[in-house]
Amino acid sequence: MTINHAGTLGKEYFISYIKLIMNACGCSVDEAKEQTFKRLFNSQEENMGRETFKQFLNAYKELQG
Q1: Eight-state DSSP code of residue 7
Q2: Among 4, 24, 56, 63, which residue has the least CB neighbours within 10 Å?
C-alpha cells in the first residue's frame, strides 16, 4: 500500500492495513498491530505524527472488538 506523507492517515486506512497483514501472514490482530507499528512507524510513535498514531490505535481497538 502506498502512503502519502502529506496528511494524516485515518482509522479506516489502518483497519485495512492491519487486516491485510492478518490475511497475508495468518496472524492475530495483536501480531499484525506490532508488524504495522514496525513497518509504518519504524517502532516510533511520533514518526508519522501524533494524529496518525492516534488513528492507528483507534483502528487497533476497533479490530480487537
Answers
A1: S
A2: 4
pLDDT tier for residue 2 given thresholds of 50, 70 and 90: low
- The residues, ordered by sequence, that sit 6+ positions from 45 with a Cβ below 8 Å of its Cβ are 53
CA distances from 52 to 5, 7, 23, 29, 30 (A): 10, 9, 23, 19, 19
| Nearest-angstrom CA–CA distance, 2 and 61 | 23
List pLDDT tens digits, range 18-45: 999 999 999 999 999 999 999 999 999 9
Distance CA 26, CA 43 (A): 21
Using alpha carbons, select from 15, 16, 20 the residue that is nearest to residue 59: 15
